[in-house]
Amino acid sequence: MIKLNKNQIRDLLPHREPMLLIDELYDIKKLTSATAVVNVQKDSFFVQGHFPENPVMPGVLIVESFGQAAAALTAHGLDKSTYENKLVFLMGVEKARFRNPVIPDCKLILKIEAIRSHGRVWKYKGEAFVDDKKMADAIWSATIVDKK
Q1: Which of 104, 125, 126, 128 yields a CA-CA distance of 20 to 30 A from 117?
Q2: Rounded-to-integer distance, Cα 35 and Cα 72, Å
């Protein structure tokens, strides 16, 4: 089973701390699907200001985590020359549902799947879980563009 750690993910993505949210990527099926881990901690940067008395991971960061996992899956499956000097930009979120709050000190598991690709445009879907309980799901699209 292929498993990427945070350093290997960092090599695939332009994101850096504190915005690099994905800690692991595993169960990778080339350009098709993968599972990602986001370790949501009490000291995560967003906890200090997002309801400090009742911290919750913001929904937009769950969607961002989906996007990072999808970008890592795609970059890992492509020839390096294809994604070198490129960026992946979120184009749209067709559907996002937040079913339960993601409370710090948990492991958020993201199951993502590439639905289709057409040139530089990709469409994905994903589900987020904590302890087998569905927390969120989304469908989104992204594009690969040249760095400027």
Answers
A1: 128
A2: 11
